[in-house]
Structure formats: structure tokens, C-alpha cells
Specification:
Blueprint lengths: L4 E7 L3 H9 L4 H4 L3 E9 L5 E10 L2 E13 L2 E9 L2 E14 L2 E12 L5 H24 L5
Antiparallel strand pairs: 1-7, 2-3, 3-4, 4-5, 5-6, 6-7
Amino acid sequence: MAEHTSSSITIDAAPAEVMAVIADFARYPEWTGEVKEADILATDDQGRAEQVRLVLDAGAIKDDHTLAYTWHSADQVSWTLVKSQMLRELDGSYTLAALAADRTEVTYQLTVDVKIPMLGMIKRKAEKVIIDRALAGLKKRVESHPDA
């Protein structure tokens, strides 16, 4: 069983505002450094993405892959890998917790396994870089109010 990496950040916005940015896959290339393309392939009956194709360039990990998303609640979404050129596993989740009316703690958990041999230490470092950049990008995107 692969180990996961997780980290949290506090964002000055309500959970619904944070989740709206997380769910807006088409705009990921605007604020994530690693996602170069994002295409929604399928949606559920509420219009939320169920399958998303992402072109990722995260330094040591470059890939064109498809993820399946599960929306557990208004405050949690998880994903699993459907197909990939380079990855064997890319499972993760965002979990939001309201700290106040306009403050949210976001926890990002990620498990990555590549098809090519890679030392566990290097893989965990790549996971940590992906998580830290994603959380910093999410915070900056949400707090800058790009649609205001």
C-alpha cells in the first residue's frame, strides 16, 4: 500500500468560495503551476465534474491523465486515477473545515505512484511539492477574488 502525503492551509474565505475554485477545473491552468490543460469529460446530475483529463508538468512528474472525482459533501472531494501514461496511482482529496464565517482550513491529501522506478524519498518530495504549490495557488486564487 502506498503512503500518502498531506498538508493544510488556512484561506481567508468561506468554504463554499474555496470549493467553487477547486471545482472550476477549466481554470486550473490559470492558477496551478503544474496543470497545463484541463478538460471535463463527464459531469454528474448536479453539473459537477466526474471525470477530468489533466495535462500535468510537475518537474519529475509529467503526464496526461484522467481522474474520476467523487463529491462526498459540500466540503470534501476526492479523486482516483482512471488512466495515465506515467502514473500507476494518483489518488487524493481536498477536505474543507470552516474556522469562521470567512476562514477555511483546507487539507490536501495525495498519493502518487509512478510506473517507472523512483525512490520513495524522491516520490514523497514530489508529492510534497505538488501539494504545497497547489495549496499556495489555491489560497492566492481564492483570496484574490478573480471573478469579483
